[in-house]
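re the bet — no i am not wrong, look at it urself. input seq straight from the record:
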Amino acid sequence: MGTIYGWLSTTEKTFDISCIEQQSAALKSLNSLYSGVARHQNLAEVAGYGLRSAPSIYQSSRLVVIVEGDPYWSDDELAKIASKGDSSRALAVGFIKYGRLVLNKIHGPFSFCIIEPERYYALLANDRLGIRPLAYYYQQGLFVFGSKLDHIIAHPGVNKVIDPQGIFNYLYAHMIPSPGSIYKDILKLQPGEFIEINSNKHLRDFYWQSDYTESTFTKLKLMEQVHTQLGQSIATCLPDKETGVFLSGGLDSSTVTGFFQQFAAHKVDAFTMGFDAEGYDEMAYARIVAAHFKVNLHEYYVSPADVLNSIPLIAQTYDEPFGNASAVPSYYCAKFARERGMTRLLAGDGGDEIFAGNSRYAKQKLFEYYRYLPDFSKAVIVPMANNIPFLSKLQSYIEQAKINMPDRLETYNFLHRSPLLEFFSEEFLKKIDPEIPIANCRSTYNRANTDDLLKRMLHLDGKFTLADNDLRKVNRMCELAGVEVQYPMLQEDLVKFSAGIPSKWLMQGFELRSFYKKSMQNFLPKETLIKSKQGFGLPFGVWMAQDKELKQFALDNLFSFSKRGIVNPVYIKNIIQLHQKGHASYYGVMIWLLIMLEQWLIAHEPS
């Protein structure tokens, strides 16, 4: 994945664009555009980055344009220019022709910047699904941007100040959702968003979001189209012999594997991870799929030692704290593939968020049914739940059903299980607004152009579960391993198609992905269609209880983190005790979050 960063200043009347992936030490001095661009045109010459695509650069007396990613165009003239391998020139021509509305003509995974220095103008945007990241700092006439936060804070005019709100947001969401970041005054673009700087004015808005208008086709016709759409998505990725595929054995990775093998003229290489821990290992399902589609399956078992070795590396690799523990197996899977000659991997991420596969969708549908029950029905149910012991779970469900969406989705959040003063120090709480994370969720949920409960949850997950979490995980871990990654399930035509499928078909009754499963019943193995969702989940809590070195590493990091004045030390002692008393898997999640935060702070915080 290529990288862009640069800056524009009204006070100094200067600007700079750079497009080279460099180590942080080298980023302390940003090269000028005119002396640097020609030298950096070919990133393949840079040691260690030969596998990554170089950004496309266009420069004229008026414009400087840089495009990162693999965009395509819905304008014939621009498509013809881009077909010659010149995406930045296509964007420049499109900008001159359409202005900011060129955003409606560019598609696919991308981030870009357009600079007109003479009139202090900048337009930045990332793609509709947030596959390619972009962030910026804009204070007192200085506009600094980059696809990595490390590049932005390298500018001497940007104060490298860690934001307590970012830390709170991380512990709330297990990552830092856009538009916020770990640093004060640095914001990340959300999927389908742009920022336009014009003199001293700036505009930030969405140029796209999914259209959930229901298709008029019959259910049978839509089911037939699923296969066509999936085949086109795989073909668009242009996989070759050096392209492998992640294979967990779930619906999406299995689908991508099967369609890739149909498309390929060679035997496809699939890569899977296993764990020697009860309830976590899905190797058997990956083997079933591999045999079904006759692909080469490469297996790797992640060990506690692998986890221990990778934690500091992963914490240093991310430009802000990131707590998704499946980053570990994702990294080892990508590394494993790279060692076996792969330069690119196809990932199945996105299927659950476009075809309704997350378990909370069914639960929230049940809650919504309760909310619309007649009062006389509730008058019967509530006393039963309160007075009959074995119906205590029903009582909990009734209490949850009373909460409005999307707040109801967060009822199981660690930070809602006890008062914040039991979790955080009093001084830390004075520096943050605990309502910001849920306000961010509400904003995204309510922005969906539909009143349909399921479609609104899909819209929410497209931003938080995918763009902020899963894509960030897979992108950065593949980059660390030295391979590129593509997402067939997130090709725009497929996403647009799925958005038009009526909710009553996407999830019939309470069956997750019922429409998709019926469409795939003659393609995927039966075992894949009926298995529960798992993925590359990491048994960290279980292993911490069993492995002495991993446990000691965790305890050491928890002890050092307890001295930072962020979390109440008593809380840390409590979760250690609860973990040791048999709640290893549950409390292992919070322990992992705190360890990764401590490791990130060690690697990144200002001296």
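see?? Residues 453-481 form the longest helix (29 residues). told u. also The domain at 5-206 is CATH 3.60.20 (Glutamine Phosphoribosylpyrophosphate, subunit 1, domain 1). so pay up
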